[in-house]
Structures are given as structure tokens and as C-alpha cells.
């Protein structure tokens, strides 16, 4: 079924492909004088400082990914502080010469951080006696209280949600990414929303809490709940999603938030005015059109319930602290072209990307997996170098086989665990090819492996509507964050790759129509550190000075 919105989004996707002889339209250079401020602030809104909680040794990295392993922490100031600290806070400052910039726990394309986070909560001990809506300010690690509202309104809002629920809202400021990347930026904003969904889900899991995307809501309803209004002077924030975070033992399957309960938020006394991030802006109308076309109407719950592929994850006892990994996560800037990993480590990394019973963070997404991997394996001990495919939803094996080149081998590599549906397609050295496909970037060929995330495309867009376009990228971003953390925990380093040649990658796999599209790339290997950069702590005497 085609609609004007679907036409818009299909056109957006085609127009923003990079081709071997032509990149998608961008600004053609960086206007440093107008570089967007990475920190949105709501001036005039009361500030509630959150606690700084240094990463300890517990919980262990592996146990966080498995539902039911950790006791639910109480809903109090400490757990809200920890939730934001481990998901959307700063992780370090970097300095080169006289220039300093901050890094964050959640990754972002170009370190531009289009994603803003919000908290909607009832009364929370040590934080507020009143229900409230707050914007999270990462540089201050504080909440800006945008509005308070009556307890009856909170009760009506959370009537169908477990006791102890808090709500986390995410928005995107497209201009932050468009400043550097032009028309392709809308895709990157969606990747980053996905990274943030995974970051919040895993930080919550470390607190014994489960996270669910409340996806019956309309995009407009989320905007009303978060108090987003059209300010003349400040860059708009596009509502993305609302996440319910609640104790793990209350894992209801269907959670909902009635649209009628949102009405009182239209007339709350909103406090604070957003800052302007740049003095001047370049308009990218195709991004505005893509945003409008992919706004979601209110819908019933998905008929497409996730079908777990794997059994519950086995939990190893590796003494790796979850929070240490989360705070040390970085993108590699260059890879050494030498470091390899073992077959067992490779399977362990892939296993963490496969959804299954109680496997975080995929439990947050209320649809069946849509993303599969096309992998270029370079340096995995015991695995032939070559082209591989990881299927993340068993039901897609035959459709993918028939959509890809018929000469592919589809052979299961030795010792591959049953719940990892990995297939060897071709054997051979894929280093040059992978580098060429990822915009000639050496990081794609100098690692242990790199991959393209192949999303089911036409069928889910036709089934649900143009709004599902954003969700395909969210799923890719969720996977990106898992891969980032797995790389760190395996003693190597990864990075998301947004710059790749779309159709040449489709050509490698033999994908010739719109059934599947390549939505994100990733690589990991032995990092080469840049010795010119100094690392400084995220918080300390840096606050307020930079
Ligand atoms: C969606 C996405 C796309 C990215 N694309 C590229 C890329 O094409 N090439 C590259 O070298 N780095 C790429 N990066 C790495 C970012 O530039 C890096 O994440 C950013 O500078 C933030 O640093 P951090 O991840 O260490 O916090 C990408 C990251 C993300 C999240």
C-alpha cells in the first residue's frame, strides 16, 4: 500500500544514499562559527543536581544482559541518578592543544549528540514530592524541572503501567547532525536515538529494571508530554519515543499509556526557555519532510510480537564491571590491522546481538527483529576470512536466501552455537572490498571484522506505515550500542560507521530491490590510540569552565 508519507520516506532514503561517484548532499565544508552547542539548556527552569556515583565492580557485565538476575533497586534519587549517569551522562573530556570536547556514555555520529533525554516521574524520594517533567542536562548531570503536575494526572497516566514505573523521553535536534552531514543527517539522528534506547535499557537493567518502548503513542502525544513547543529562536526538538522503566519482576507483556491521559499536559505551566545552539542555520527541507512523513499516529499494540530466537543467555563469570565498560566505551579512531580474536570470542559477541528470551536490550523493542548482518570477517582465529550472514529472526532465513546471490554457500561455520544463525557465504580476503564499501575508510578493513546491518525494508514499511522507518534505524542503533560494549568487554574497540556506499553493499550481497536495505555499518578490532589527545575526567573541576 502506498501513501504520500511512504513515498516521501522512500524518496528520502534513495536521495540520501552515498554512491561510489557521488556522496549524498551535504554542506560541503564545516562552518565552525556556527557549530551547534552540544548542550541544550532550558534557561530559567529550576535545576535538580543528581548524584555522582562512581562505577563499582558490581553488577558484572554479563549478568546485566539477562533478565531476572538482579534485584530491583528502589525508585529513589540514587537510582534515577545512576540511570542517567550510566546512559546519557558525560564519560570524559578530551583535549588536543587548546581545544576541549566532551564524550558521552551514549555514542553519537560525529560526536554531535542530537539526542536529548527527559524524565517524567511521580513523587521520588530525595528528588521531588510532586510528579514532574524534567529535561536531563548531561554537562551538569542535573535535571531541569520543566513542569510539576498533580498526583491524579500521574495516576491516570500510569494506570496501565507497573508500580514503580518512571518514563524516559527521547527527542532529536536534527540541526546538530545536519550542520555536518546535510541530508543524510536524519538517518544518523535515528541511529543515535537507537543507541540511547539501548543505553537507557542496559543502565536500567543494571538497576534490576526492565524497559519497554511505549509504541502505541503518537509522536505528537510524546511532544505534548515533554512540553516541546515551537520556539522561534531555538532549534526544534523532534519527539522520538517514550520508554517505561519498571521493576523486572513486573514484566507485563503489553504496556500502554492512554492518549486521553495526556490532555492535562497541554496546559501545564512549563518553565524554562531553550537556548539557541547556533547563530545561523542552513535549511535542509528534505529532513523536515522526512520528519513529518515518519511521525507516528496513535496505533494499537503491534500484531508482530517478538519471536525469541535464542534461549536465555548463559551468564559467564568474567570479572568485568558493567559500569566500567559503559563509562570507558569509546569509538576507535584507527585499527592496527593485526589484532585478531578467537572463534569463541567472535561467537560470544554475535550471540549478544541475537534477541531471545529475557535478553536485554532487545526486550525494549515491541516488534520482531528486522535487522540482520552481512559480515566481512578478516581476523578471527578458526574462521575463514570471507563474507558471512547472521540471521536474527529464523523466519527470515529463506526470504534472505532467495533475495541474495544464488551461488552463496550458506554453510554453518565450525562450532557455531545453535542460537547464533551464522552462515558462511563466500571465502576470501574481503579487506579491500569492506574498506571500499565503507567510504574507503581503513577502519572497516583493519579490524577483526566489519559488518553492514541489513534491514527488512519494504514489507514492514508497507505493513505499519512510513513511521516504521525511524524504528528500523532505532533497532540498528540498539545493535550498535551492544556491539560497542561487546568490543570493550572483549578487550578490543569498535565504532559505528554511518558513511558507506548503500547500493554497492547491496550489490555485494546480490540484493537488487527494496526488500532489504543496508542501514548501518560497524567495525571492531585492536585500536591505535591518538597520543596527541589527553583524557580528562567527565566531572570534577571541568564543570562550568568549558
Ligand atoms: C551512527 C554513527 C556513525 C558513525 N560513522 C562514522 C564513520 O563513518 N567514520 C568514523 O570514523 N567514525 C564514525 N562514527 C564514530 C563517531 O564519530 C564517534 O562515535 C564520535 O566521535 C563519538 O565518540 P565516542 O563514540 O568515542 O563517544 C560514527 C558513530 C556513530 C554512532
How would you sum up this structure, described in words?
The strands form 5 sheets. A 7-stranded antiparallel sheet has the order 2-7-6-5-8-10-9, sandwiched between helices. A 6-stranded antiparallel sheet has the order 16-15-13-17-19-18, with helices on both faces. Strand 6 and strand 7 form a beta hairpin. Helix 5 (174-181) packs across helix 6 (185-205). It has 546 residues and is of the alpha+beta class. The chain has helices at 4-15, 61-64, 77-85, 151-157, 174-181, 185-205, 219-225, 285-293, 322-328, 343-351, 397-403, 431-437, 458-464, 468-489, 502-509; strands at 42-43, 47-49, 90-96, 99-104, 115-121, 132-137, 142-148, 166-172, 209-213, 238-247, 273-274, 341-342, 371-377, 380-381, 386-391, 421-427, 449-456, 493-497, 516-525, 534-536. The longest helix is centred in the C-terminal third of the chain and has 22 residues, at 468-489. Bound molecules: flavin mononucleotide. Residues 103-104, 107-111, 188, 191, 330-331, 441, 443, 495-499 line the site of flavin mononucleotide.
**DSSP summary, beta strand count:** 20
Termini separation: 52 Å
Which residues form runs of ≥5 with pLDDT under 50?
A: 542-546
Percent of residues in helices:
25-40%
What is the count of helical runs?
Answer: 15
Q: Compounds present?
A: flavin mononucleotide
**What is the overall pLDDT average?**
94
Q: In angstroms, what is the radius of gyration?
A: 22 Å
Query: If strands are numbered along the chain, what order do they take across the biggest sheet?
Result: 2-7-6-5-8-10-9
Structural category: alpha+beta
The largest pleated sheet is described as:
7 strands, antiparallel
Beta fraction = 15-25%
Name the overall outline: globular
